Amino acid sequence: MNSGSLRLRLGLAAAGLIALALVLAGIGLTLIFDRVLDARTADGLDRTAKLIAGQVALAPDGAPTLPREPPDSRFSTPYGGLYWQVERAGGTALRSRSLWDRSLGTLPDTSEEPAVGDLAGPDGGRLIAVTRRVSIPGNGGTVALAVTVAEDRRDLAQSRATFLRLLVPSLGALFAALTLAMSLFVRRALAPFRTLRADLAAIHAGTQARLPDTFPEEVRPLVADLNRLLDAQERDLERARTGAGDMAHGLKTPLAVLDALARRTEAADPALAAEIAEQAHAMGRQVERTLARARAASGGLRRRACPVGPAIARIVGALKRLPEGESLRWEIAVPENLAFPGDEGDLTEILGNLLDNARKWAHRRIRVSGGAEGGEHRLVLEDDGPGMSEAAIAGIARGRRWDESRPGTGFGIAIARDLAEGVGARMHLSRSELGGLRVEMRWPVPAA
Q: How far apart are CA 345 and CA 356, in angstroms?
């Protein structure tokens, strides 16, 4: 797919949007995970704070005591990452062994119980902490205590890193799956345009006249416009062909008059009569060429591929019955699958002009070959006659006669070239290895 492909553009746009959506989703999931992790951690710390608050008691001297510490071993390991302390109004009363010789701060009192926030850890790290305030009876009154439990956020960072290690590959796999699904979706969505392209190729090949009405609703306006364009082009071509035909038929009568005048004056002035006859004949050939161009143009939308081999066989069979054709050796090597992208009438006129020209100039041998090469069909006609100079070949390209010694010489090749170019074929003239003229035609392989 090149840079102008609609499928490529839609695919890249979809892949970009999918990537952006997944990046935003990853960020959102990470934020949600962090909040959920903090909430679950705070909930666990609060349960520990409630456990400590439920066990704390006052000694006879009024000092708080804790009969049994929480079972987690990190509370007993210096700087183990999990800490607790019990604080009263006069200062810290109890703390876990993990705090060693340090103490935790206390979160500010809030309307919500417990208070949740961050504190500085004993080793300089950040802690997520929960403070629960309780009052216990003692010494004829109550004593207010603040129970704080905290956990090092570095432990939470490990959980976050594990989550990200699982999240990133998962999002990558999801990106690949969604991109593949979107690619299939875009291909499916553009399927009507591939069908439209195939139908247009069928119209160009002549296998159908109009686009069908079976396209989706979004494509039908385009199909309707194309059908109207095809109809308008067909009408314009028909008018052009009719006009060319009218002009050509209108010239036939004056040409017939000139020919009659030439015959009348032949006895009195043979040279003048021959000149008039020759010019009338040249004008007639130009009329034939105009009709051939009009027919080639009008057949553009109704063109069908036709086999080349049978047409060559018919024409060669007819030319062999002429005096010059009986003594020639005709070498025909054309494959059966060689097909010409035009109707049978165009092919017959092209081959008739080229083969008749070869018959006029060949000494003993005419060779016709063909085949497929590089995605194209190729047809080559050669003879062993005198051939043509480069200047004469250039004259053919301009539609002039290239030899005045024989009536009509050169116009047949010009007509053949016009018809060939009208159906998309290319004609190249050069000198053959046999010594005479070599005519090569190439055209794309026609649609079936």
A: 16
The residues that bridge with 122 in the sheet, in sequence order, are none
Cα(401)–Cα(119) distance, rounded to whole angstroms?
105
Q: Over the stretch 283-327, which tens digit does the pLDDT of each residue have?
A: 777 776 666 666 665 555 545 678 999 999 999 999 888 877 788
| Residue that has been written with the tokens 């700087």 in this structure | 79
91 in the Ramachandran plot: left (φ > 0), alpha (ψ -120 to 50) or beta?
left
The reported pLDDT for the residue numbered 395 is 67
The DSSP bridge pattern shows strands 306-307 and 339-340 to be: antiparallel
- In the chain, the amino acid numbered 203 is I
DSSP 101-121: T-----PPP-SSSSEEEEEE-
Give the number of C-alpha atoms closer than 13 A to the C-alpha of residue 318, restricted to the C-beta side: 11
Q: Where are the alpha helices (DSSP H) in 265-409?
A: 270-298, 308-320, 323-326, 344-361, 390-397
Give bridge partners of residue 142 from the DSSP assignment.
137
Q: Amino acid letter at 178? A: L
- Residue 206 backbone class (left: φ over 0; alpha: ψ -120 to 50; beta: rest): left
